[in-house]
Write a structure and sequence with these properties.
The chain is α/β, with parallel strands linked by helices. It is built from nine helices and eleven strands.
């Protein structure tokens, strides 16, 4: 059985559409655990009136992405766990396909599928962690001259193993939780970079991360964030610093921040740098 964890934060209509798509396309054994993350939009009991078979967990406050998912995992029973964003809709039997694929290889620590955005474009759900050297090269536009310095751009229409996966559709065997402290997903970040830290730890302990485009979902994007674009960049930039601090060291993280700042300054995003320095 797969336990499907969905966080809801003031996205009632989006979440309902997500659950409907699961019911429509999924044939394998599953349970839906819906964690209401301190929503103020409406009474979360409305979900049970529409979907009486789901498990509803209510938090009095917004716990963030990692803690909210851990709350759902604590009440789950499946051999596999799927973290699924509330602003997604299954395009095909994505969950069935993904479960069948992950069962073929015990070394797969996590699997993500193809994400299609509002414009019909495929999103970059697979990535590699950048190095300071490559970031510096891109800041100086050296990647335009040297092909090996170009940012990692995997074929999003083909299955491949990767170093990082988005948490939008994040399927993993329950057994891999043993690599995390206290058998829980790390809660270092409130929002943004959580999936990067999870990916890093799984690869560190010799698990593979699989991008599997046969499974497809539609992803609205930022359904719960409700913040300005530049604020999202600030949060991401600061979280990247802390992620590198955790996975590398303070010097590496600081150098990365300085080079990233140079990149944003070169693109005239000075407001971002001023805001980030105050956080």
């Amino acid at each position: 059985m797969v336990s499907i964890i969905i966080l809801n934060y003031n996205t009632f209509d989006l979440t309902c559409n997500c659950v409907r798509s699961i019911i429509k396309f999924t044939q394998c054994s599953y349970e839906v655990i819906l964690v209401d993350n301190g929503s103020t939009e409406c009474d979360s009991e409305r979900f049970l009136s529409i979907f009486p078979k789901i498990t509803l967990i209510k938090s009095e406050k917004n716990l963030g992405f990692s803690r909210g998912n851990n709350l759902g995992i604590d009440s789950s029973n499946g051999e596999y766990i799927l973290l699924l964003n509330s602003d997604t809709i299954l395009i095909n039997n994505a969950i069935d396909l993904s479960i069948a694929r992950i069962k073929t290889d015990e070394t797969i620590g996590a699997l993500s599928c193809q994400l299609v955005d509002k414009k019909g474009d495929i999103q970059q759900a697979s990535y590699q962690f950048t190095s300071i050297f490559k970031l510096f090269a891109c800041t100086l536009k050296l990647h335009l001259l040297f092909r090996n310095l170009k940012p990692y751009s995997p074929p999003l229409d083909k299955e491949h193993f990767t170093k990082g996966l988005w948490g939008t559709f994040f399927l993993f065997p329950r057994s891999v939780l043993s690599v995390f402290p206290n058998n829980k997903l790390t809660e270092t970040f409130f929002m943004y970079c959580e999936d990067a830290e999870w990916s890093y730890l799984l690869v560190k302990y010799n698990y593979k991360l699989l991008y599997y485009p046969e499974a497809k979902i539609f992803h609205y994007g930022e359904g719960s964030a409700n913040i300005e674009d530049y604020q999202k960049k600030i949060n991401a930039l600061n979280n990247q610093y802390h992620l590198l601090y955790v996975t590398k060291n303070r010097f590496y993280a600081s150098l990365y921040f300085l080079i990233t700042s140079g990149f944003y300054i070169s693109t005239f995003d000075r407001k971002l740098i001023r805001e980030a320095k105050t956080m």
